[in-house]
Automatic annotation (TrEMBL), chain A:
Keyword RNA-binding (UniProt): no
The CBS domain, residue ranges: 660-726, 757-814
Residues passing through the membrane, by range: 128-148, 216-238, 258-279, 286-303, 315-339, 388-410, 430-449, 501-522, 534-555, 575-600
Protein name stated in the entry: Chloride channel protein
Protein's organism: Sparus aurata
GN (gene name): CLCN3
TrEMBL record, chain B:
Record flagged with keyword Lipid metabolism: no
Membrane-spanning ranges: 102-122
The species this protein was found in: Sparus aurata (Gilthead sea bream)
UniProt-annotated location(s): Membrane
Annotated keywords: Membrane, Signal, Transmembrane, Transmembrane helix
Name of the featured protein: Transmembrane protein 9
Region (Disordered): 136-157
Signal peptide span: 1-31
Length: 874, 188
């Protein structure tokens, strides 16, 4: 029934084509498959529904599955040429081709399975290798995260002093068993010596302060210098946060060495140094890169993943989930992060594997227990106090602050990075790191909130004032005279300590904002999460304390009267800090769901989801009002990576004809003919052009499309033939057909290149709207697409052409204003002023004839919908 | 030829990691250090007694104010009220893990530093007298200079193979450095 209908429709079109376009009968024969307009695509997609993977579309769109799949099978049975099907550095992969390859391999293993026990074991190994590789990745990333945590804590405290009894302990571990019993001396213990104590022999006084100051700067500078030197000498790819590049790689780009073992090692080592140097950066983003390196390295152990770039990206998706899982101790948040922020192709199977990898990584880190608090992160907090409805107002205000900060940070940081990229100033990376580290250290030391590790600062801001807290932030008046018990009146008037802390926090806020802008993008591993969260936490804490004091002094206001009875615990400043942190992080990265889940996994309290959601959503709205891109997308654009964002909508009305290469002024498209080229001509074509692939046509006269051959494959194949086959000369004939052409008797042996020919390239007609083309590129992950007209090749659209086109449109129009109209009507450009179809005459008439047969009518857009519905009902 | 060098370094790295892990686990299993658990009670100021921190080495089930706070600063009838204010936390750590981690980390950093110094200071001096290999800081990696290196890579002795792998690696890093620092194509 289904096939009959399909056949019927195809027949309609063919008969129409033969009449209207007056094409020859020969063309008609393969016309049904090759002339692929967007209606066919959509119909087929709808027909296939969810059951079909993209691969079957692939076969479908090329004129029936059966013939194309048999040719593929034949091709694979031929001796494969080593190297064909791999990619060059900085090239885009073809997802469709890779998936086809994997299915072919899978079929081969499955068919051999029953032959012998060994083959059966091999197939089992193959089936399990996906889980094995994510397990190994999880184990490795958990272990490396533990190493980074422990080493960074120790090195960070090395700036202040050293543990004499055991060199390898940080301050807290050093004083683990100390018996200092009073609050005043809780941080002191005889084993831990500050540098002033060791060098000058005195712990107090201006001299020792200056000595400590000097040693702090000295260590900070030497750590930073060492980090940047290691990066520069051993692995330049180890610098930066890595998330923009990983996003690009996951979307199908090849950067050789970016996920290699040297990058892994240097990133791990220098990440510790960079965090310890006190620069305004965090280790969370780079941990994602580290986990992805682990995933890539382990995937080399399994042929299923090492030989297939698309499959490898599934492992990398899982690895990035494991990375966030250990960075924040949030396994589920990690999975969602991978889904929302970094991944491009994320099928359900990958979701489960990501989940498992995150679980394994979190488990390993938990058993290492790097912080001695049985938690995965330093700043884990637990609240139990409820929040009240009116508090949503300050939470939303924090969201506004977060959005403003995000927009400001993105603008400022991108401007600074552009300067670094384009001017001479970028020539001195080492000097720049040293300079920023020096400025950071000089200004950070006097302020206790900036002197300490940023993670510790966040912890202190998140934690509520309880009896355990002895920090300055909690010096409320009632606590100081010690006459009242705590639980009686938690909302207390602020003491001088709190006022002093407010000042210092304000200064710290300004300092962090300025330094983070200049730090992100330095040539050391630098994450953005922790500084953003710190900024938000500082702002949130300030707002929280202000609210608390407001509630204390004006508890007769109607707002506070209703909820905050005297003596009730009503404002929790720590919660404000957390909401602020989430809002700022949301403003910078524009994450929503994963961010809320990460933060709520940090707190373990479900009741704060609503405040977090409100703040994060507000910050995203406010941030989007100033610019729709998050920091990672902005960096991707700044660096010009070929990344086709799946989140952005394409709202313009251009046609494929306007985007395709060659342009009107360009030289004609470089094509190969299927059987009348010689090796010399082929090589000349390849050497004269810089294109990465060439359409293969029947002959110069008919120009109909046969297939597509990649430049790299052609070069490899010719090399290979020269070495292995006898009698291949410069004037040998090259043919892409199944059988060799008839040649004169004295000609040298011809070269068959059919095995490298892609018989099923994607094609669209020249009138296809770009909206559809962009969608095809995004959803199927194409690398290039041929543009045809009546089966004749006109040009080619590559991913880079599309990106250039998007960039052009972005500069010429204001998409926000223009998009509204286009949304309502789908293809306005193809209609003339009188509402009649203009350029796609053929097409619409075709539908009309089809519709007339069924008695349909109405205007065009309606017709399209009817048509689509018909297709899905068949 | 590529895989042999890579495989060699792979096995080596794998062996090192496994050895370290084993070492760590053996260490960990052997000495569950007596000092690695603590029960820390923080008692806030109460009446006219100032705040105190108590730190004792007890098992997890004994980790409460009654077992840890000793001597009790308040008379018997006040103990309950005082203890309600105290917060006790049981904490565990593994000092061996910390020790091993820091030692591994420092040794890796030390090794890298030495190698870096070797590459920057000693290597150019040796290379100067070697006519076949070109200096590290040459701008153009010309194709015709590759053949003299490659046969060496296929050499029989381990040293030659290592040398070849090192040369290839150096070339890759050089390329990366150009991409990142000179052309600013990436990561800026």
């Amino acid at each position: 029934m289904e096939s009959e209908q399909l056949y019927h429709r195809g027949y309609c079109r063919n008969s129409y084509n033969s009449i209207a376009s007056a094409s020859s009968d020969e063309e008609l024969l393969d016309g049904a498959g090759v002339i692929m307009d967007f209606h066919t695509t959509e119909d087929d997609n709808l027909l296939d529904g969810d059951a079909a993977s993209p691969g079957s579309n692939y076969a479908m769109s090329n004129g029936g599955g059966a013939p194309s799949s048999t040719t593929h099978l034949l091709d694979f049975l031929e001796e494969p040429i080593p190297g064909v099907g791999t990619y060059d550095d900085f090239h885009t992969i073809d997802w469709v081709r890779e998936k086809c390859k994997d299915r072919e391999r899978h079929r081969k293993i499955n068919s051999k399975k029953k032959e012998s026990a060994w083959e059966f074991t091999k197939s089992l190994y193959d089936a399990w290798s996906g889980w094995l590789v994510v397990t190994l990745t999880g184990l490795a990333s958990g272990a490396l995260a533990g190493l980074i945590d422990i080493a960074a804590d120790w090195m960070n405290d090395l700036k202040e002093g050293v543990c004499l009894s055991a060199m390898w302990f940080n301050h807290e571990q050093c004083c683990w068993t100390s018996n200092e019993t009073t609050f005043a001396e809780r941080d002191k213990c005889p084993q831990w010596k500050s540098w002033a104590e060791l060098i000058l022999g005195q712990a107090e006084g201006p001299g020792s302060y200056i000595m400590n100051y000097f040693m702090y700067i000295y260590w900070a500078l030497s750590f930073a210098f060492l980090a940047v030197c290691l990066v520069k000498v051993f692995a330049p790819y180890a610098c930066g946060s890595g998330i923009p590049e990983i996003k690009t790689i996951l979307s199908g780009f090849i950067i050789r060495g970016y996920l290699g073992k040297w990058t892994l090692m240097i990133k791990t080592i220098t990440l510790v140094l960079a965090v310890a140097s006190g620069l305004s950066l965090g280790k969370e983003g780079p941990l994602v890169h580290v986990a992805c390196c682990c995933g890539n390295i382990f995937s080399y152990l399994f042929p299923k993943y090492s030989k297939n770039e698309a499959k490898k990206r599934e492992v990398l998706s899982a690895a990035s989930a494991a990375g966030v899982s250990v960075a924040f101790g949030a396994p589920i948040g990690g999975v969602l992060f991978s889904l929302e922020e970094v991944s491009y192709y994320f099928p359900l199977k990958t979701l489960w594997r990501s989940f498992f990898a995150a679980l394994v990584a979190a488990f390993v880190l938990r058993s290492i227990n790097p912080f001695g608090n049985s938690r995965l992160v330093l700043f884990y907090v637990e609240y139990h106090t409820p929040w009240y409805l009116f508090e949503l107002i300050p939470f939303i205000l924090l969201g506004v602050f977060g959005g403003l900060w995000g927009a400001f940070f993105i603008r400022a940081n991108i401007a600074w990075c552009r300067r670094r990229k384009s001017t001479r100033f970028g020539k001195y990376p080492v000097l720049e790191v040293i300079l920023v580290a020096a400025i950071t250290a000089v200004f950070a030391f006097p302020n206790p909130y900036t002197r300490q590790n940023t993670s510790e600062l966040i912890k202190e801001l998140f934690t509520d004032c309880g009896p355990l807290e002895s920090s300055q932030l909690c010096q409320y008046r009632s606590q100081m005279n010690g006459s009242k018990a705590f639980s009686d009146n938690p909302n207390r008037p602020a003491g001088p300590g709190v006022y002093a802390a407010m000042w210092q926090l304000c200064l710290a806020l300004v300092f962090k904002i300025i330094m983070t802008i200049f730090t992100f993008g330095l040539k050391v591993p630098s994450g953005l999460f922790i500084p953003s969260m710190a900024i938000g936490a500082i702002a949130g804490r300030i707002v929280g304390i202000a609210m608390e004091q407001l509630a204390y002094y004006h508890h007769d206001w109607f707002l506070f009267k209703e909820w905050c009875e005297v003596g009730a615990d009503c404002i929790t400043p720590g919660l404000y800090a957390m909401v602020g942190a989430a809002a700022c992080l949301g403003g910078v990265t524009r994450m929503t769901v994963s961010l809320v889940v990460i933060v709520f996994e940090l707190t373990g309290g479900l009741e704060y989801i609503v405040p977090l959601m409100a703040a994060v959503m507000t910050s995203k709205w406010v941030g989007d009002a100033f610019g729709r891109e998050g920091i990672y997308e902005s960096h991707i654009r700044l660096n010009g990576y070929p990344f086709l964002d799946a989140k952005e909508e394409f709202t313009h009305t251009t046609l494929a004809r306007e985007v395709m290469r060659p342009r009107r002024s360009d030289p004609p498209l470089a094509v190969l003919t299927q059987d009348d080229l010689t090796v010399e001509e082929l090589q000349a074509t390849i050497n004269e052009t810089s294109y990465n692939g060439f359409p293969v046509i029947v002959s110069k006269e008919s120009q109909r499309l046969v297939g597509f051959a990649l430049r790299r494959d052609i070069t490899i194949a010719i090399e290979n033939a020269r070495r292995k086959q006898e009698g291949i000369m410069l004037n040998s004939r090259v043919y892409f057909t199944q059988h060799a052409p008839t040649l004169p008797a004295d000609s040298p042996r011809p070269l068959k290149l059919r095995s490298i020919l892609d018989m099923s390239p994607f094609t669209v007609t020249d009138h296809t709207p770009m909206e559809i083309v962009v969608d095809i590129f995004r959803k199927l992950g194409l690398r290039q697409c041929l543009v045809t007209h009546n089966g004749i090749v006109l040009g080619i659209i590559t991913k880079k052409n599309i990106l250039e086109h998007l960039e052009e449109l972005k500069q010429h129009t204001e998409p926000l204003a223009a998009s509204w109209y286009y949304h309502k009507k789908r293809y306005p450009a193809s209609h003339g002023s009188n509402g009649k179809p203009r350029s796609r005459v053929h097409h619409v008439q075709l539908i009309r004839s089809f519709q007339d047969g069924r008695g349909g009518g109405g205007d065009d857009s309606e017709e399209e919908e009817v048509h689509l519905l018909d297709g899905s009902n068949l | 030829k590529m895989s042999s060098g890579r495989g060699g370094s792979w096995t080596f790295a794998g062996a090192v990691v496994v050895a370290l892990l084993l070492l760590d686990f053996v260490d960990f299993a052997q000495t569950k250090n007596f000092e690695d658990v603590r029960c820390k009670c923080i008692c806030p100021p109460y009446r006219n007694i100032s705040g105190h921190i108590y730190n004792r080495n007890v098992s997890q089930k004994d980790c409460n104010c009654l077992h840890v706070v000793e001597p009790m600063p308040v008379p018997g009838h006040d103990v309950e009220a005082y203890c309600l204010l105290c917060e006790c936390k049981y904490e565990e750590r593994s000092s061996n893990t910390i020790k091993v981690t820091i030692i591994i980390y420092l040794s890796v950093v030390g090794a890298l530093l030495l190698y870096m110094l070797f590459l920057l200071l000693v290597d150019p001096l040796i290379r100067k007298h070697d006519p076949y290999t070109q200096p590290l800081h040459n701008e153009e990696d010309s194709e015709e200079m590759r053949p003299p290196v490659d046969p060496q890579a296929r050499g029989n002795t381990v040293l030659e193979r290592v040398e070849g792998a090192q040369q290839r690696w150096k070339k890759q890093v050089q390329e990366q450095r150009k991409t990142v620092f000179d052309r600013h194509k990436m990561l800026s």
